[in-house]
Design goal:
Layout lengths: L1 E3 L2 E3 L2 E3 L6 E5 L6 E6 L3 H19 L3 H17 L1 H12 L3 H21 L2 H4 E4 L2 E7 L2 E6 L4 H15 L3 E5 L8 H10 L6 E3 L4 H10 L3 E7 L2 H12 L4 E5 L5 E4 L5 H13 L11 E5 L3 H13 L19 H16 L3 E4 L17 E5 L4 H4 L6 E7 L1 H10 L6 E5 L3 H9 L5 E4 L17 E2 L4 H6 L2 E7 L2
Parallel strand pairs: 1-5, 8-9, 8-11, 9-10, 11-12, 13-14, 13-18, 14-17, 16-17, 18-19
Antiparallel strand pairs: 2-3, 4-5, 6-7, 7-21, 12-20, 15-16
Helix pairs in contact: 1-8, 2-4, 2-6, 2-7, 3-4, 4-6, 8-9, 10-11
Family: Belongs to the aldehyde dehydrogenase family.
InterPro entries: Ald_DH/histidinol_DH, Ald_DH_C, Ald_DH_CS_CYS, Ald_DH_CS_GLU, Ald_DH_N, Aldehyde_DH_dom
Keywords: Oxidoreductase
Length: about 475
């Protein structure tokens, strides 16, 4: 069995000072495939100190120098494409097609950041003042387990472009998939201390990074509960925070929608990445005037999905990350049954023939917006169908949630879809398809987070404004 005891601090791959271990399992078989050695407070402090020492020289680099280093990172990520894909599928359980999309997008973040490195990004005139946008300082980047290469590249690219040095804490639950990412970072050859990677749990590593006086900025993608802890930790030193947190996104199917287009859209939005996505559209709102038609179409679509080995080309739903995640999803399915939601497809237990591994039956409930399965983020292939009367009630139900990350609208009239989208409390709304852009802002309303990422909004999150006046 492999032991994963590789961190990247001050320009070197090093063993952890910490001794706590974490079992790494295959989502496909459920068996342990490695043991990860986690960092401790000593490791976290060493990484912050390395980033602090590197900050003056890095923040003083020219835009051309930063472009060159970002290009090296893009090339280094691309060179480890196959390793990143296979590791993601094995540990996380997402399908090869989805893993390929995640990994192929990863180098693009560095190339996008290169394009942001123009003089106007950093110097602007405001009346008699010259406004300089300067690096915030050392940035702690805390990333999730549902696509390590993507989230690390997305955050690190703009932080580095802004002139910040960074300490990255990938989720310990994604340590296997993060190994080729660590290799890519080490091979890119950035100056020592500019980019550091330490694996560890929230206590102590996350706690150190979010309270350390030399950390000026924290960016986290994670659960709402974890985001609240980070925000509290940041208060004493008034760290700047970007929080991309949970979601319980609605897919509003309007009464003029064609089931042939609306149903595949709703199912894809709800079950992307095996439902292990913060943007998953897990509440599907349907008009009462067409209730039975849409229930039947959605039930048939979910029941027809192939669940299986994520390495097989025709698999749509793979296994969940680990046994804890499997048990979590089963408990939610049980709560839906106990609270009286109607099971339209799926249900408890493993799919037949897939008793090994963390496979779940994609489950579709019909119920109300006050049931637990419609209120809480499940992070698995569980959807709730909720019936509404009229467009106003559809909007009210869609917005009746503590979250506001993403929303989806299906309609036969694109202009109407745009109008409804403007009424939804969500940071992003997609009409009639899974469309998006790395240049458009990404982030949530309400308890889905604080601040925005992607593109120019992403780099702005790592910059401070300084107005200089000359008499």
């Amino acid at each position: 069995m492999k032991t994963l005891n590789r961190h990247y601090v001050d320009g070197r791959v090093v063993a952890a000072h910490g001794t706590d271990t974490y079992p790494v399992t295959s989502a496909i078989t459920g068996e342990q495939i490695a043991e990860g050695v986690l960092g401790d407070a000593v490791d976290a402090n060493a990484a912050v100190e390395a980033a602090r020492r590197a900050l003056p020289a890095w923040s003083a680099t020219t835009l051309d120098q930063r472009r060159d280093y970002l290009g090296r990172l893009a090339d280094s990520f691309a060179a480890r494409r196959e390793d990143m894909i296979s590791a993601l599928v094995e540990e996380f359980g997402t399908t090869t097609a989805t893993a390929t999309f995640i990994v192929d997008e990863s180098p693009q973040w560095f190339l996008d950041a290169q394009r942001l490195l123009v003089e106007d990004t950093f110097v602007r005139q405001a009346g008699r003042a010259t406004v300089h946008r300067v690096p915030a300082g050392v940035a702690a980047l805390i990333t999730p387990w549902n696509g390590a290469s993507w989230s690390i590249a997305m955050k690190a690219s703009v932080a580095l472009a802004a002139g910040c040095t960074v300490v990255i804490k990938p989720s310990e639950r994604g340590i296997w998939q993060a190994q080729p990412v660590l290799d890519a970072i080490a091979a890119a050859g950035l100056p020592a201390g500019v980019i550091n990677v330490v694996f560890g749990k929230g206590d102590p590593v996350g706690g150190i990074l979010t309270t350390h006086p030399d950390v000026a900025k924290v960016s986290i993608t994670g659960s709402t509960a974890t985001g609240k802890i980070v925000a509290r930790n940041a208060v004493d030193t008034l760290k700047r925070v970007t929080l991309e947190l949970g979601g319980k996104s609605p897919t509003v199917i309007l009464d003029d929608a064609d089931p042939a287009q609306a149903v595949p859209f709703a199912v894809q939005a709800g079950l992307f990445n095996n439902g292990q996505a913060c943007v998953a559209g897990t509440r599907i709102l349907i008009p009462r005037s067409r209730e039975e038609e849409f229930k039947q179409a959605l039930s048939e679509a979910v029941a027809a999905l192939k669940v299986g080995d994520p390495r097989e080309a025709d698999t749509v739903i793979g296994p969940l990350l680990d046994r804890d995640q499997y048990d979590r999803v089963q408990s939610y399915i049980q709560s839906g049954i106990e609270e009286g939601a109607e099971v339209l497809a799926g249900g408890l237990g493993h799919p037949e023939g897939l008793e090994k591994g963390n496979y779940v039956r994609p489950t579709l409930f019909a119920g109300t917006n006050d049931q637990t399965v419609a209120r809480e983020e499940i992070f698995g292939p569980v959807l709730s169908v909720i019936t509404y009367d009229g467009e106003d009630e559809a909007v009210a139900i869609a917005n009746d949630t503590p979250y506001g990350l993403t929303a989806y609208v299906a309609t036969g009239d694109a202009a109407r879809g745009q109008r409804v989208a403007r009424r939804l409390q969500a940071g992003r709304v997609m009409v009639n398809g899974m469309v998006g852009s790395r240049d458009a802002p990404f982030g949530g309303f309400k308890q889905s987070g604080m601040g925005r990422e992607f593109g120019s909004w992403g780099i702005s999150a790592f910059l401070e404004e300084q107005a200089v006046f000359t008499a």
